[in-house]
Specification:
six-stranded mixed sheet, alpha/beta
Length: 1498
């Protein structure tokens, strides 16, 4: 080098320590400045250029028009080149004038000049490739400036020292060069306009990331707009940005599909299968005909499936790799700060060290932390986006596959399993990507940490490391045990929810019988078991918290103790102690995360296998049904067709020959199970064609036997993607007899139909399904018994108006499977199927004459299909016209609030969003309930505002009120809460104490090469540390106990209130909503809030103690705390408001994906028949993108927050180091080590504190929701002291209604107006009247389910409104209209309080004619009734209710249409029992059948 700089003059030396290090005013030699410093930026640009050009060549985004900004950049680039070469020519000029110059004066200007020229050309090339903001050039200008700062200072210092400027020309050109560099740097911070000729962005709300500049992308500054908006008001769907082009389903799914096809092809090649005709493998992309010929296959070994993993790696690996490179850089940078800390402590010790060295170290620490933060969050961004794309692609590919799998494949994967694949398994992949890099990163960090520790302390390090390793199995054991408890607790929870569900369904019966206390006790008993398990797992988690918090301390203690014990010459000084402490802290994370990563990779590999297996299922062959003509004039032709449901199963239809002429109506008849529906499926191509040929000309419409109804409006169900024509639509409604139904439905044809058509009756569903077919206006109609679900009149109407010879479909080809004999004379041709073969074909008359199978079929069915009178008007069946409003409301309840969807789905993400170095909250595992998928939101548009029975539930928005936190504190207990905070203060005090003691220990004077009192030092350090550990454990225990107390209090209050709530509340509130409080919200209070509070308190006190330590060691730090706190507070508030709402939006948009999916699978045959696969795939993609649209800003909000909060943490590091340097003379090395090593940890706890605040605010809402339902108004007290009637009351049974009026709810009309009635003791009264006349209201008033609006009811001269409800209800008996039974033993259903002996119970059963049935059961009285008494017939249930009445045997008996549900024979039994057993009682009967009350008094 020195040869290049020339041999004479001071500038010739390349490196001179006297100028550089050993001085208070350091500088670099001129030679070093002219060579290395000038070449660094040039080397950077030349090295990165080839890669960058390759990248630009691949990614063209159109070109950008020349703008002012671009012109300015180019001009200054050219000027820089000119300035450099001016230097070069000046050197030549001097050379010509015989001045001898060192070679460096020619080389450097030449290299730098060419580099500037390249940079200028690059500016233009980037413009042509559509780059709006260049990261490569930004870094180049930044490096040039940084390298230019030293000569900038150096030249001024030299000039001042010499009193004059030596080389005026070069002096001037350098400062001009520097100014231009600075301008270029400023210009490169701005971004260009969007490029021309790029795909036109028609997006109304594009993601600002697309056009963000380089700096904005690195710091996620582009997200700030949304953070501000989310702070001002709760975000809504319309505020969300569209997804980036490369993240949408259209871009991501085809990528994976392509790679998967490559895998399949490779697999086929391997197996020796080649495809003769078609290059296409997966038929749902192109559907080319395909015949495969097997050349050589080895029969013995089972073929391996194509690898889905390889496809995933090829599709998404390269993008993920970028993130891994960032991770590598971040890992290496992690170890720089401990080394800098080492140097800083050495600097403080050396009182003669120049202060510039200290400032340089402080600045380096800060710079290193900032770069680490930026790199880390870039890594996370890449990982999360990869995860997001993985989920999109996997869900998309599963959906596409589900539309084409064969029926046999469907049998092996149920709907639930397939939905699980896309919900749980795809989610696992998404969660896995965050940790995948830890597989290599954790071992790397562990090795590096051990290497540096070895350098610091030598062999004793392994003592500490051994402790760490020992703690791993302990943690693993705790985790296994916790999981076991979780499973046990889930079982209790499920049974509690099941019981609650039953109680709420039968709440009216409980009230009428006054049985609430017994059931309340049952719920509390289960709850107690649940809480016991919770308590055990809380103790376990306290133990694991202890292990986690104490681990670093125990490790440090062991290491230091061994270190000083091994050799008394080993001195523990500040450098060794605090550097090794900071290294141990780095070690903690990889050691803890590695076992978790490995176990979650094991889970993901299971998911991978499941998905791979599903994707390898057989697909339907699109050539089962051909479109080409086989015989002219026929719309449907089957020649020698043999079909089966699966390749391996026996054929279901054999040698079918069928030709259906165009425009004819063919009926297919036969006994149950003879293959009628199979024939329709074969025509649709849904069966495996073993032999023969099938062809259908024209489009097909299909009406399945069980109507498939989408969760959409009624209108959408009928249109099914066809354009709307008013006239045609009205005709279809008219023909399918839907006009009257529309009048009844609350929103007309805009009524939202619940899932599986839940708010339509069977007949209505079938008519909608038929209307869909009719509206599609296809050529061929395949109708699979559409008339069986509707009653006879409607069937006739539909046949005449739609299917028959005069119907709307005349002239179309129709194949009708039917059992209705009455229609057969009107069809053109009848096909009779027997055991999967066509036995006869011909017209009605021909077949009758043949007297074969058809005539026999007629004889079987003619009995139960009575011919209908021709002139009877068409009346719609009663079950069809009914209160759709009520049913609708019962099903809307389940999606009302965003969180409920999650509660119901309980697809809980396995690990909550994972932060930088934060530990992971415990996995929350929850059972998924697939049976409970919910309909979408209720319809927005209604024909008229209907009086809403069910009030919509409001979703929480905005900040949570402090009141809610106070309510929770009250539930825990205010004193206990204070005690918990106190414990946290103590444990942090102990931790600080231990570290301060360590700093004193390290400062202790060294006498004769050893430190004195080593035993005492180690002992006190151990005592303080162990105290901290114990306090941690006690505080975790106390918090767990407090959390469980709160959970118990809140649940009991809710339960108590719900049993005391008046019936009207249950009439107007959907059960789902109440159950939600008992399941989701109680779950959150039980299991989510306590650990969140634990983490919050932990991070809060850690951050606080850090500040205290730094302030006490360098009091100056107090000055900067306020501005940093303000910065932190703003970042936190913006983030919490935005992320909370984004989480809500994400969970709301998630459920539609799953419900749409399960709907598609159940209706796949209909979708295929109508050829609507593509639009359904599109719809699924759109739903998925909508969900990702709210998920993506959620990820970015975490990155945005991370960078801002960590910047605050980095400032803490900077100021802690800076003030240590400033106060160097008054400080000792131990205190500085303590203060800076605390500061290095603060970033993580600051970050987690914000996360925990956010989680706490999101979850504490559960307390508010439970409180809301625990404080609804209650009914009258059950027992009123001093007002109880005598035990024998009522003796006579005289009932008087005096001027009695009653209404159902406040604000409604009176149902009974001024009723006067006296019933004498022992009278039998029949109550009749038409529906809605108030018959049931009378009985409800008697039990005070309805409270009087005016007047009173007296029983034996006692005013019933003055006594307790239970005193009243337990003295009356009712046999209700709907017999309600609860799951449990039969005995419990008869006598929940166990008041009666077994003899009495048997006697009651005998009188109610159940004795024979019960004694026939193996368990007799303990016979288990299933939920709702499903395993007893309706009649038997009614008899159980009668037995209840016989057991209670009160003076007053009320029968509420008790025998409407039973057959006449049972009715007579019941009546005779009542006559004999209750002859001296007062009986009030509401009757539908007159024969029940023929012999009554009046």
């Amino acid at each position: 080098m020195e040869a290049l700089c020339g041999s004479e003059g001071s500038g010739s030396k390349f490196w001179d320590p006297n100028i550089t290090i050993h001085t208070n005013n350091p500088d670099l030699p001129t030679c070093f400045q002219n060579s290395v410093l000038a070449w660094i930026p040039c080397c950077y640009l030349w090295v990165s250029l080839p890669f960058y050009l390759l990248y630009l060549k691949r990614n063209k985004k159109g070109y950008i028009l020349v703008s002012k900004l671009n012109r300015a950049k180019t001009v200054f680039g050219v000027l820089l080149w000119v300035v450099c070469w001016a230097d070069l020519f000046h050197s030549f000029h001097e050379f010509i004038n015989n001045k001898i110059l060192p070679p460096i004066y020619f080389i450097t200007p030449l290299i730098v000049g060419i580099t500037m020229l390249v940079a200028t050309l690059l500016i233009q090339f980037e413009r042509l490739r559509g780059v709006q903001s260049s990261g490569v050039l930004f870094m180049f200008w930044l490096l040039s400036i940084i390298c230019g700062i030293i000569p900038f200072r150096s030249k001024i210092i030299t000039a001042m020292a010499q009193g004059q400027i030596g080389d005026k020309f070069r002096f001037a050109t350098f400062y001009i060069y520097f100014a231009f560099l600075f301008i270029e740097l400023i210009l490169s911070c701005f971004r260009e306009r969007p490029p021309f000729f790029s795909a036109i962005n028609t997006d109304p709300n594009p993601c600002p990331e697309l056009n963000a500049g380089f700096l904005s992308k690195m710091t996620f500054w582009w997200f700030t707009k949304m953070a501000l908006l989310g702070y001002k008001r709760p975000l809504e769907n319309k505020d969300l940005w569209s997804l980036n082009k490369q993240d949408v389903s259209d871009a991501v799914v085809p990528q994976l599909l392509k790679e998967w096809e490559v895998e399949i092809k490779a697999k086929r090649k391997e197996e020796g299968i080649f495809t003769e005709t078609s290059p296409v493998v997966m038929n749902h992309l192109d559907g080319g005909p395909e015949e495969a010929t097997v050349l050589i296959t080895d029969k013995k070994k089972t073929p391996k499936e194509p690898s889905f993993l390889n496809a995933l790696i090829r599709a998404f690996g390269p993008y993920f790799l970028v993130g891994s490179i960032y991770k590598l850089a971040q890992d290496l940078l992690t170890f720089v700060n401990p080394q800098l800390l080492n140097l800083l402590i050495a600097f403080i010790k050396n009182k003669d060290a120049p202060s510039w060295w200290g400032f340089l170290l402080a600045a380096s620490m800060f710079l290193c932390s900032v770069i680490q933060t930026i790199i880390l969050h870039q890594h996370f961004q890449y990982c999360f986006v990869t995860g997001m794309r993985l989920r999109t692609a996997i869900v998309g590919i599963i959906y596409r596959k589900a539309l084409v799998i064969t029926n046999s494949a469907k049998r092996s994967s149920t709907v639930g399993e397939i939905v699980n694949l896309m919900s749980v398994d795809a989610q696992r992949f998404m969660d896995q990507t965050t940790f995948l890099n830890m597989l290599w990163s954790a071992p790397l960090q562990i090795c590096l940490a051990l290497y540096f520790l070895w350098q610091t302390l030598g062999p004793p390090v392994f003592a500490g490391f051994a402790v760490m390793i020992l703690l791993i199995p302990i943690n693993a054991a705790i985790a296994i045990k916790t999981r076991k408890f979780q499973v046990e607790q889930m079982q209790y929870k499920d049974s509690r929810i099941k019981l609650m569900n039953e109680i709420l369904n039968g709440i009216k019966v409980l009230k009428l019988y006054a049985w609430e206390p017994s059931f309340q006790a049952k719920v509390l008993e289960i709850r107690q078991k649940e809480l016991n398990v919770l308590r055990k797992s809380a103790y376990l988690s306290a133990a694991s918290t202890f292990a986690w918090i104490s681990a670093p301390f125990l490790v440090a203690l062991t290491t230091f103790a061994v270190y000083v014990a091994v050799d008394e010459k080993n001195v523990l000084d500040a450098q060794k102690a605090f550097v090794s402490l900071s290294l141990f802290n780095i070690l903690r994370f990889p050691l803890n995360i590695l076992p978790q990563v490995i176990s979650s990779i094991a889970q993901t590999s299971v998911s991978l296998k499941r998905i791979q297996h599903f994707l390898c299922h057989d697909e339907l062959d699109p050539n089962n049904v051909e479109k080409k003509k086989i015989s002219s004039g026929h719309a449907i032709t089957v020649l020698n067709g043999t079909f089966s449901w699966a390749v391996e199963s026996p054929s279901a239809l054999h040698s079918i020959n069928l030709a259906v002429p165009k425009g004819s109506l063919v009926a297919v008849v036969g006994h149950v199970g003879c293959g009628k529906s199979s024939l329709i499926s074969a025509l649709l191509g849904e069966m495996v064609k073993i032999d023969g040929a099938v062809s259908i000309q024209g489009t097909v419409a299909y009406v399945p036997q069980q109507a498939w109804i989408q969760n959409a409006t009624l209108k959408d169900n009928i249109l099914f993607g066809q354009p709307f024509t008013e006239h045609k639509y009205q005709n279809v409604l008219e023909a399918c007899a839907l006009i009257t139904d529309l009048e009844v439905l609350p929103g007309g044809d805009y009524t939202e139909i619940g899932e599986k058509g839940i708010n339509l009756s069977g007949g209505q569903k079938q008519r909608v399904s038929l209307a869909r077919a009719l509206y599609s206006n296809s050529d061929v109609y395949l109708l699979d018994d559409p008339l069986s679900a509707v009653d006879a009149h409607v069937a006739k109407h539909i046949f005449d108006k739609v299917i028959g010879p005069e119907g709307a479909l005349k002239g179309k080809t129709r194949v009708l499977v039917t059992h209705g004999i009455s229609f057969l004379p009107q069809v053109d041709q009848i096909v009779v199927l027997v055991d999967g073969k066509v036995s006869e074909m011909g017209s009605y008359q021909e077949l009758l004459q043949q007297n074969g199978a058809f005539a026999e079929f007629l004889r079987t069915y003619v009995l139960d299909d009575g011919d209908i009178d021709e002139d009877e008007p068409t009346v719609l069946e009663e079950e069809d016209v009914f209160l759709a409003e009520e049913t609708l409301s019962n099903h809307i309840d389940l999606t009302d609030e965003p969180v409920a969807n999650e509660a119901r789905k309980q697809f809980i993400r396995q690990i909550s969003v994972m932060s930088a170095d934060g530990d992971i909250p415990k996995k929350i595992c929850t059972r998924r309930r697939l049976s409970e998928k919910k309909p979408l939101e209720p319809p927005a548009e209604k024909k008229k505002e209907v009086e809403k029975l069910i009030q919509a539930e409001t979703a929480e928005t905005g900040r949570v009120k402090m009141k809610v936190f106070w309510q929770y504190v009250q539930a825990v207990g205010p004193l206990l809460s204070l005690f918990i905070c106190l414990l946290y203060c103590c444990q942090n005090a102990a931790a600080i104490g231990a570290n301060i003691w360590l700093s004193y220990w390290t400062n202790e004077a060294v006498i004769n090469g050893t430190q004195q009192n080593r035993q005492m030092r180690v002992g006190v350090y151990a005592a303080l540390g162990i105290t901290q550990g114990l306090l941690v454990m006690i505080s975790s225990f106390t918090l767990a106990i407090g959390g469980i107390a709160a959970a118990r209090t809140l649940h009991s209050a809710l339960l108590e209130n719900k049993f005391h709530t008046p019936q009207s509340f249950f009439d107007t509130t959907p059960i789902g909503r109440i159950i939600n409080r008992f399941s989701k919200d109680i779950y959150v209070i039980d299991e989510v809030i306590p650990p969140t509070i634990l983490m919050f308190l932990g991070t809060f006190f850690t951050s606080l103690s850090t500040m205290i330590v730094i302030i006490s060691s360098t009091p100056l730090f107090a000055v900067v705390i306020i501005p940093l706190a303000i910065l932190y507070f703003f970042a936190q508030r913006f983030y919490v408001a935005t992320s909370r709402q984004l989480k809500r939006l994400e969970s709301v948009s998630r459920s539609p994906i799953y419900s749409h999916f399960s709907e598609t699978i159940t209706g796949s045959s209909v979708i295929r028949a109508y050829g609507r696969q593509d639009s359904f795939i599109l719809l699924n993609d759109r739903k998925l993108d909508d969900n990702q649209k709210s998920y993506y800003p959620g990820i970015v909000s975490n990155r945005w927050l991370g960078i801002r909060v960590e910047f605050v943490g980095n400032c803490v590091v900077l100021f802690a180091a800076l003030f240590a340097v400033i106060g160097k003379d008054s400080l000792n090395a131990g205190i500085v080590g303590l203060s800076v090593s605390y500061a290095l940890q603060v970033t993580m706890s600051l970050n987690w504190m914000v996360r925990m605040t956010s989680d706490l605010e999101t979850n504490i809402v559960a307390v508010e929701r439970v409180k809301e339902y625990a404080e609804t108004e209650t009914e009258a007290p059950w027992v009123i002291e001093n007002k109880s009637p005598p035990p024998s009351w009522p003796e006579k049974g005289i009932v008087k209604f005096q001027d009695y009026s009653v209404r159902y709810r406040a604000g409604l009309d009176l149902v009974l107006k001024g009723l006067h009635l006296k019933v004498n003791g022992g009278e039998k009264i029949g109550i009749v009247g038409r529906t809605g006349a108030g018959k049931s209201s009378m009985t409800l008033s008697l039990f005070r389910i309805l409270e009087a609006a005016a007047g009173e009811i007296r029983i034996d001269d006692v005013n019933i409104s003055e006594i307790g409800l239970h005193d009243l209800r337990s003295k009356l008996t009712i046999i209700p209209q709907d017999p309600v039974l609860f799951s449990g033993t039969l005995r419990m259903n008869l006598d929940p309080f166990e008041k009666y002996s077994d003899e009495e119970v048997w006697k009651a059963l005998e009188l109610s004619h159940l004795k024979k049935f019960v004694s026939g059961q193996p368990d007799q009285l303990n016979h288990e009734c299933s939920e709702g008494g499903e395993n007893l017939s309706v009649g038997q249930r009614q008899l159980v209710c009668l037995a209840r009445a016989l057991l209670r045997k009160t003076r007053i008996l009320v029968l509420d249409e008790a025998t409407a549900a039973v057959d006449l024979e049972t009715d007579d039994l019941i009546q005779s029992t009542i006559r004999t057993q209750f002859e001296d009682c007062t009986v009030l009967t509401i009757a539908h059948r007159l024969n029940t009350i023929m012999d009554y008094t009046r």
